[in-house]
Each structure stands twice: as structure tokens, then as C-alpha cells.
Design brief:
Blueprint (H helix, E strand, L loop, with lengths): L7 E3 L2 E3 L3 E3 L14 H12 L4 E2 L3 E3 L19 H13 L3 E7 L28 E2 L14 E2 L2 H20 L4 E6 L4 H6 L14 H4 L1 H13 L6 E6 L10 H13 L4 E5 L19 H11 L3 E3 L6 H9 L5 E4 L1 H5 L3 H8 L11 H9 L18 H5 L5
Parallel strand pairs: 3-4, 3-13, 4-6, 5-6, 6-9, 7-8, 9-10, 10-11, 11-12, 12-13
Antiparallel strand pairs: 1-2
Helix pairs in contact: 1-2, 3-6, 7-8
The structure holds flavin mononucleotide.
Length: 390
């Protein structure tokens, strides 16, 4: 039976454990390029024991960014910064992963702490957003949307392939396509955002065409030996939107097109949602487990999995193969070491670089004085009940 600290092999890549740092947009890039900040952020998480480390979503075109300070991969000049990041991640014992994305109608935004508002196309920091249909998202995203032509869709697929080629040159060993969270791929799949009447809209088969073609284009540029995965907008939590049954079918289709693992996340194609248990521990786990069971493909999942006993249990019960941590990875660069102590693993410090671990093992100092939180050693009531109340 695997646990949170069991290695995980997918294609020709083996992770030292089941803990992934989930992609998180940081608004610190310049001209789409990564720098010292990203080396610090991602190198420290790799040194802290994460098995798989993602930088933020990396845009395949300039208009695929969230805002002008987001990272990109549309130009060879962006490879150097990304290569620094992959080098430090690998040097610290983790596998470097890239998430390729395009924000579609949710782009041209200010930073969250500056209001997270959409900027108009004529603003110096804004641009004309593009999407499957000319339907603004609404709420904070008010400006007109340009409907993509078929020629532009084909250009985007070529941009995905070019991005994959650059990702390989930068040293990434795992590639995830970001087709969730209301961004471009997610909006193609959702009837709320996609009202096209051509072969990219209408039936669920047509609404998945963008994904299939993008996946085929990337697979042609990305070696078979390296994992190719997708974060899928699998549920809009809205009767008119993507339903989870559609996602189960979609992952089966994508598996036939070479998908190696599915990361099941939220559709986020509308603010009008019902029954979205945002604050519940591991609320996407049972859904992902269904895909794993019915489609027969490895799955990963995020959302509220930062309690070590919960993260460990969803792996032990073989509900999911990988746990993605977002906010916990921001809060604690050493989350895996902390979790290993909480879960009474034999040698938690083995997750750290040996030049730190040796001192912590051999020079423990006064009881509790190393600065690690004390081991709680007790499961919370919620942990022992299980995800579905068992
Ligand atoms: C600051 C921040 C930035 C994020 N940026 C991205 C992103 O670039 N791509 C993505 O797929 N998800 C993004 N997310 C979502 C996380 O990857 C993750 O799925 C989500 O936070 C749920 O996991 P958690 O409960 O462990 O935080 C972001 C989340 C946060 C907190």
C-alpha cells in the first residue's frame, strides 16, 4: 500500500514522494521572464522535500497571461530564466514541472492586491481578450471578448507545441496543460462560455476538440518518456455548465490521445455556483477517485489537502496518486518534512539536503529547540472520520 512518502513513477520519471507544489501565479516576472525571486521560491520548496515542483502557470502567448507581470514561454529569450529554475529544483532532489496556460477571457487583470480588476484593451497594461465566444465572464471581467477564428485556434495549438519545445529545452520533465479555472481550455469545454456553432462548439465532443488538438500538438513536441498531464475544469457547479460526468468521459477521450495523468480541478467559468464546498477538506478527492476507477488513469488533485493525515489517507486508500498543495506550500516551504514528522516517518530529515539534515539529526540541541512545530501525534476528529464520514 503506498503512502504520502512512497515514490511515484509515471512514464520515465520517478518522484521521491506523492507531494506536488501546485502552480501558483506570483506576479513577479518581467517581460514574461523568471528571475531570482522564482529561483528562491521554487528552490526552497524543492529543498523542503516536495517531490514535484511547479512554477506558476506559464503563458504560451503574451495575451495568455493573467497580467503583465506573469511568466511566459512564447520567446526563446524566456528559456534562460526557466532553466535556472529547473536546475535548482533538480539539484534539490525534486522533479521540475511546467504548467502551460492561456487565460482566455480572464486575462488582462491587475494584481489581486491591486483589486484583481480587468483592464480595458486600450490600457497600457491591458489587451483585447480572446475566447471561444464573444461572451464576457461578467463580474470583475466586463470588457468585450473577441471570438477566436478557426485560424487563430490553429495558431494557438502551434503556440502550445512551440511552448512544449521550449519547456524541454529549459529542462522541465513533466508538462501539465492548464485547462481549468475558467481559462481558455476550460471555457472551450463549458457550455456557459462556449456558444460556437462550428466544430469547436455545441456537442460535448465538439467542446473537447480544442483539448484533443492541443494535446496532440504538444505530444508531437514532447517526448513519450516524459509525463504529459492536464488540469481539467471538471465541474462548473452550475446546472448550465460542465458537469462532472462530462469530465469523466473527457478524461477517457484524452487518455486515448496520450494523456498520462488527470488533475481534476474546478471549471470556474461563472461566479454563479451552488453546492461548491470551498472550505471542506479534500472536496475534489472523491470525484478524482471516480475518474481513477472508471477511466483507469492516474489522478492528482488539489484543494484543502494541507492536513498531513488527510493527504496521507487519500494516497493510502488509493483514491488519488498525487496530492497537489497550493496555499500550504506558500505557508510552509518545509511542509513535507513537517508532515513526515507528524506522520511519524522514520527519518523526516532525509527529505532535506544532506548538508542540513546531518546537523538536525546529529545535533538536536535542547528538547524542541530546533524550531520545528511540535509533533501533534493525534489525529483530528475530521481526519479519522474520513472524507465521506466513514
Ligand atoms: C496565489 C495562488 C496562485 C494560483 N495560481 C494558479 C495557477 O497559476 N495555476 C493553477 O492551475 N492554479 C493556481 N492556483 C490554484 C492552486 O494551484 C491550487 O489548485 C488551489 O490553491 C487549491 O489548493 P490548496 O487548497 O492547496 O491551496 C493558485 C492558487 C493560489 C493561492
Amino acid at each position: 500500500m503506498p503512502d504520502l512518502f512512497s515514490p511515484f513513477t509515471l512514464k520515465g520519471v520517478t518522484l521521491r514522494n506523492r507531494i506536488a507544489m501546485s502552480p501558483m501565479t506570483m506576479y513577479r516576472a518581467e517581460d514574461g521572464r523568471m528571475g531570482d525571486y522564482h529561483v528562491m521560491l521554487l528552490g526552497s520548496r524543492a529543498a523542503g522535500g516536495f517531490g514535484l515542483v511547479f512554477p506558476e502557470q506559464i503563458a504560451i502567448t503574451p495575451d495568455g497571461r493573467t497580467g503583465t507581470s506573469c511568466a511566459g514561454i512564447w520567446d526563446d529569450a524566456q528559456i534562460e530564466g526557466l532553466a535556472r529554475v529547473t536546475a535548482i529544483i533538480r539539484d534539490m532532489g525534486a522533479v521540475p514541472a511546467i504548467q502551460l496556460g492561456h487565460t482566455g477571457r480572464k486575462g488582462s487583470e491587475t494584481k489581486p492586491w491591486e483589486g484583481k480588476l480587468q483592464l480595458p484593451p486600450d490600457h497600457p497594461e491591458g489587451w483585447q481578450v480572446r475566447a471561444p465566444s464573444a461572451i464576457p465572464y461578467g463580474g470583475r471581467y466586463t470588457y468585450p471578448v473577441q471570438e477566436l477564428t478557426v485560424a487563430e485556434i490553429h495558431d494557438l495549438h502551434r503556440a502550445y507545441a512551440e511552448a512544449a519545445r521550449r519547456a524541454l529545452a529549459a529542462g522541465f520533465e513533466w508538462l501539465e496543460m492548464h485547462f481549468a479555472h475558467g481559462y481558455l481550455g476550460a471555457s472551450f469545454f463549458s457550455p456557459i462560455a462556449n456558444r460556437r456553432t462550428d466544430r469547436y462548439g455545441g456537442s460535448v465532443e465538439n467542446r473537447l476538440r480544442f483539448h484533443r488538438e492541443a494535446l496532440d500538438a504538444v505530444r508531437a513536441a514532447w517526448p513519450e518518456r516524459l509525463p504529459l498531464t492536464m488540469r481539467l475544469g471538471s465541474d462548473d457547479f452550475n446546472e448550465q455548465g460542465v458537469r462532472f460526468d462530462d469530465a469523466v468521459w473527457a478524461v477517457g477521450e484524452l487518455k486515448a490521445h496520450g494523456l498520462d495523468l488527470a488533475d481534476l480541478s474546478l471549471g470556474m467559468n461563472t461566479d454563479v455556483v451552488s453546492d461548491l464546498p470551498f472550505n471542506e477538506a479534500g472536496f475534489m478527492v472523491e470525484r478524482a477517485a471516480r475518474v481513477r476507477r472508471e477511466v483507469g488513469i492516474p489522478v492528482g488533485v488539489s484543494w484543502n489537502l494541507g492536513i498531513p493525515a488527510v493527504a496521507d489517507r487519500v494516497i493510502r486508500e488509493e483514491l488519488v496518486d498525487l496530492v497537489f498543495l497550493g496555499r500550504p506550500a506558500l505557508a510552509n516551504p518545509h511542509w513535507p518534512v513537517w508532515a513526515a514528522r507528524e506522520l511519524a516517518q522514520d527519518d523526516p530529515f532525509a527529505l532535506l539536503p544532506e548538508d542540513w539534515a546531518w546537523w538536525l539529526r546529529n545535533r538536536p540541541g535542547a528538547e524542541g529547540s530546533q524550531g520545528w512545530p511540535a509533533v501533534v501525534g493525534q489525529r483530528t476528529e475530521q481526519d479519522s472520520r474520513g472524507m465521506d464520514g466513514r
